[in-house]
Amino acid sequence: MGEGAPVRDDERPRAKHVSHPILRLDIVGANGARESEYRVFCKYQQRSVPIGTCSACAHCDAILPAPTPSVECTIPLDETEPPPDPQGVRTAVGGVLAAGATVIDPSVTVREALALLRSENRRSVAVVDEKRTIIGVVHEATFVPKPGARKEPPNESIARIMSGSVVVHESLPVRKALEVLAASHLREVTVVNEDGVPLGLFRDVDGLRWLVDARDRERTARGIPREEQKHGRDLR
Ligand code: SF4
Fold first, then answer.
1. Which H or E element spans position 228?
2. pLDDT at 236 exceeding the cut of 80
3. Is 226 within the bounds of a domain?
4. What pTM does this model have?
5. What is the total count of domains within the chain?
6. What is the pLDDT of residues 110-127, one digit of tens each?
7. Does the structure show a pLDDT above 90 at 63?
């Protein structure tokens, strides 16, 4: 093509702008020591990546600290846009996480774990090893001794009382993740990557809200006015 020749629309590379929330993993150790790691669930690769990968990625436009920490990218658009997913059967649960998680290492004491649960208003907290792989979970209920049972010594290591954890892989569809929660009688579950490292917490309320929004998006794509969506008068 000669210099200055106009570029036809069908010759332009098709691309779209995508924002990825940064998922921060806080690892709390004994005596309140804290370390943090940062990942995003890359919508282009459909898997989580460390933030360092984004810094070196050709699709990265910016890494923004505020208002919500995010990675902004321009990624190629496929020939066909993925169809709407009002049932949540194709959307990976990792891609709907808005925030990361706080976890503890096994050296944390019973007293420290209980204080963390209370300060963060949590029902449970995951326990990870030195590679950040999840190895267990401590539930709030663990600290409520059954009648006649011994109370856990406050300086006991949490490793002794943690139990096995229910987790879901980041690529599991939203609908399936909700089924795991229902089958396990849980309100929230930890989402992990290929190595078993926690990315964030998936809560049933967040999943159900996502399904409602996805249904609205699908109806909007079909041209159904928002008022009709709101009043449930869609008879098509
Ligand atoms: S910068 Fe690259 S690796 Fe990071 S989220 Fe965007 S497309 Fe994925």
1. helix 226-230
2. no
3. no
4. 0.85
5. 1
6. 899 999 999 988 888 999
7. yes
Domain that includes residue 80, residue range: 16-221
Kindly state if the Cβ of 20 falls inside 6 Å of ligand 1: yes
Residue 197: is its pLDDT beyond 80? Answer: yes
Is residue 100 over pLDDT 90?
Answer: yes
Q: Ligand 1: which of 39, 44, 72 to mutate, judged by most atoms within 8 Å of the beta carbon?
A: 44
Whether 139 is in a domain gets the answer: yes
- Element at 211 (helix H, strand E): helix 204-221
Q: How far is ligand 1, taken at its centre, from the CA of residue 60, in Å?
A: 6
- Which atom of ligand 1 lies nearest, measured to the CA of 75? 7
* Separation between Cα atoms, residue 177 and residue 179, nearest integer Å: 5
Residue 22 predicted with pLDDT over 60: yes
- 48, 199 contact by CB (below 8 A): yes
Give the CATH number, domain containing residue 117. Answer: 3.10.580.10
In a domain? residue 2: no
Alpha carbon of 58 to ligand 1 centroid (Å):
8
Q: How far is the CA of 44 from the centre of ligand 1 (A)?
A: 7
Residue 97 counted as domain residue:
yes
- Residues 134, 167: Cα–Cα separation, whole Å: 9
Mean pLDDT within 12-37? 90
How far, in Å, from the CA of 95 to the mean position of ligand 1?
13
Please state the φ and ψ torsions of residue 177, each to the nearest 5 degrees: -65, -40
